[in-house]
Amino acid sequence: MSTKSLGYLVLFMIWIILPAIVLSEGKLSFYRGTTEEHSYSFKDTTITEFLFNMCFQTPPKAVSVKVKPADSSVEINFDVIVLEISHDRVQVRLERIDDTQGWDWMLLTVEWIVYTDDVGSDWQKYNGYAYKALQGVTTYEKAREACRSEGAWLPVFGPMEIAANGGNNYNDIFGDRHWIGLKRENGNGKFFWENWTKLSLDSYWKPGEPHQNKFCVISHTGNKWKTQDCDQTSSVVCERIAPVHDDGGP
Predict the structure, then answer these.
(1) Distance (Å) of CA 229 to CA 132, 154, 201, 232
(2) pLDDT per position as a tens digit, 127-144
(3) What string of DSSP letters covers the chain?
């Protein structure tokens, strides 16, 4: 690590013991859990690292982690990147993305999904993630639960990629009018993604959107987003991490 990088990176170890996570062939292909841990950074530091202590027979294929303050009144957004995966630990980088300042000692909620197998043939890989279209239509919460049962979530990174880069491949592949992982929380007017980060891009709303009395979001024609009543039904696409093989390929 260079001297320059030491100026903004502080290594903070969180040893999280995950009970009874010793999965063998033929068992669950993923394992999900939530824990709470304390963390802090120096005022001029927005990045820290921590470790999950695990116990697997072989290294997991992939790990997904998301982090937020346990106190919902604290508005801090974190970007989480998995740096290293082995059979007994996972190293994660945590970066504050809503400010250039660090954060005081606080309790964090950490949710993780550990994948022990590759994605099946019914998943389609795109830009580092894997997607699966489910049959039928359903409400937002039922769609969310259906994706959770797949070890996945409603799409976040595909729609984000479109918004950030103006790409159209995601909607070309999966079409429109399916739920995306974006929802207005607690009637406060703010939209949050399924990875617990606040919406920071607003240029991809359909004209006239977002509707102030609708809280959930679907994809729409032309890579636009449209709010919809959460109890209405739309189609379902699930998103998850696509494992990277030893050769760096998907």
Answers:
(1) 23, 16, 21, 5
(2) 889 999 999 999 999 999
(3) --HHHHTTEEE-----B-TT----TTS-SEEEEEEEEEE---TT--EEEEEEE---SS--SEEEEEEEESSTT----EEEEEEEE-SSEEEEEEEE-S-SS---SEEEEEEEEEE-S---TTSEEETTEEEEEEEEEE-HHHHHHHHHTTT-BS--HHHHHHHHH---HHHHHH-SSBEEEEEE-TTSS-EEETTSPBP---TTBPTT-S-TT--EEEEETTTEEEEE-TTS-EEEEEEEEPPPPTTS--
For the entire predicted model, the pTM comes to 0.83
Q: Residue 76 has which token pair?
A: 């801090």
CA torsion 167-172-178-184 (nearest 10°) is: 10
State the residue for tokens 């690590």.
Answer: 1
pLDDT, one tens digit per residue, over 213-233 is 899 999 887 778 899 999 999
What is the C-alpha R_g of the chain?
19
Both tokens of 142, joined, read: 């039922």
What is the three-state SS of 48-62? EEEEEECCCCCCCCE
